């Protein structure tokens, strides 16, 4: 793959976010034109200000008001500086939030594997070969899927066992989001593994 191919497939944007006296370098490498939401997610990780509490300002524009808008629509390009207003998490709530962000990141990695298993299974079905001829590939897909399920169950246990008080509003909300994400992926995986195990192929 050439450099031209890479540039045509990915959008790369580097920005600076100023939060009081703090400065954060934000790097967005994406397959679609980055949205305000993508920026807010990175700011949440780097600056410890949750998306719900962020105000992002650029040349009089309030980016956070339209999270699904592409950054380029605001005239944002590499090297631009954005002002962040919002209270940073502290203490035990910040520790809980960090842990949940780490779990969420790992779950998204597992989701990439699930998508690969889905793609390979769809390709196998398209080939319309018999189950006997595809036995090894089916076993491999089943194995990858089972490993993903085991990992998701582990992360579900980690997130569920975090003792977060309802007074820790942002961490409590994040815990619910992460648990919902994990359960959604487990449901998808359950359907996928069932389809793989019952595959007959061409008649």
Automatic annotation (TrEMBL):
SUPFAM superfamilies: BAG domain (SSF63491), Ubiquitin-like (SSF54236). GO terms for molecular function: protein-folding chaperone binding. Residues 13-91 form the Ubiquitin-like domain. InterPro entries: BAG_dom_sf, Ubiquitin-like_dom, Ubiquitin-like_domsf. Gene3D superfamilies: BAG domain, Phosphatidylinositol 3-kinase Catalytic Subunit, Chain A, domain 1. This is Ubiquitin-like domain-containing protein. It comes from Rotaria sordida. The lineage of its organism: Eukaryota, Metazoa, Spiralia, Gnathifera, Rotifera.
């Amino acid at each position: 793959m050439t450099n031209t191919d890479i540039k045509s497939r990915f959008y790369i944007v580097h920005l600076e976010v100023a939060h009081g006296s703090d400065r954060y370098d934000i790097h967005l490498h994406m397959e679609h034109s980055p949205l305000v939401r993508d920026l807010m997610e990175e700011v949440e990780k780097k600056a410890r200000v949750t998306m719900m509490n962020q105000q992002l300002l650029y040349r009089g524009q309030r980016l956070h008001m339209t999270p699904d808008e592409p950054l380029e629509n605001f005239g944002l390009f590499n090297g631009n500086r954005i002002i962040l207003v919002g209270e940073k998490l502290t203490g035990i709530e910040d520790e809980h939030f960090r842990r949940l962000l780490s779990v969420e990141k790992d779950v998204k990695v597992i989701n990439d594997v699930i998508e690969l298993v889905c793609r390979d299974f769809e390709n196998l079905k398209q080939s319309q070969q018999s189950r006997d001829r595809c036995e090894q590939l089916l076993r491999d897909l089943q194995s990858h899927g089972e490993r993903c399920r085991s990992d998701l169950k582990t992360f579900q246990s980690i997130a569920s066992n975090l003792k977060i008080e309802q007074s820790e509003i942002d961490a409590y909300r994040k815990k619910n989001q992460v648990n919902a994400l994990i359960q959604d992926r487990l449901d998808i995986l359950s359907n996928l593994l069932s389809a793989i195990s019952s595959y007959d192929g061409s008649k």
